[in-house]
Amino acid sequence: QVQLVESGGGLVQAGGSLRLSCAASRRTFGTYTLGWFRQAPGKEREIVGTINWSGSRTAYADSVKGRFTISRENNNNNNNTVHLQMMRLKPDDTAVYYCAADTTTPWATPTHASEYEYWGQGTQVTVSS
């Protein structure tokens, strides 16, 4: 089991920046891909960005390419952190942002929510116009 705790959400004006972080931990050794998803009211949960275990592969939604950057720190085998640096934010970026872990394909960067087994509680990001 992977436990995920997000932080860093908040209110920002359009054009501003925010950095989200997610602390991931598990009791036993294991590798996993980490991803960020978001869900706006009345909309489906969608991928924002994902990064594989080694950090060698990333994938992004088209809507955030060039504005958002995902990175991770494998601090030790059981505790890792994934960051989402968000720049040039737009009102359309307003959503609850979720961190997720996929333990089945740690070398890959899956983009569908159904491929992730573990989820954080989410953190609200609000971008005002």
Description:
The chain is mainly β and 129 residues long. The chain is 0% helix and 51% strand. The protein contains no helices and eleven strands. Strands 2, 4, 5, 6, 9, 10 and 11 form a seven-stranded mixed beta sheet that branches. A four-stranded antiparallel beta sheet has the order 1-3-8-7, with no helix packed on it. It is globular and about 45 Å long. The chain starts with a strand and ends with a strand.
Q: What is the helix/strand order?
A: EEEEEEEEEEE
What does the main sheet amount to? 7 strands, mixed
Number of strands: 11
Number of helices: 0
As a percent range, the share of strand residues is over 45%
Please sum up the structure shown:
This protein has 129 residues and is mainly beta.
Question: Topology, please?
Answer:
Layout lengths: L2 E5 L2 E4 L4 E8 L7 E7 L6 E6 L6 E3 L7 E9 L2 E8 L8 E8 L15 E2 L3 E6 L1
Parallel strand pairs: 2-11
Antiparallel strand pairs: 1-3, 3-8, 4-5, 4-9, 5-6, 7-8, 9-10, 9-11
Kindly list the characteristics that best describe this protein.
single chain, 129 residues, mainly beta, seven-stranded mixed beta sheet, four-stranded antiparallel beta sheet, 11 strands, 0% helix, 51% strand, globular
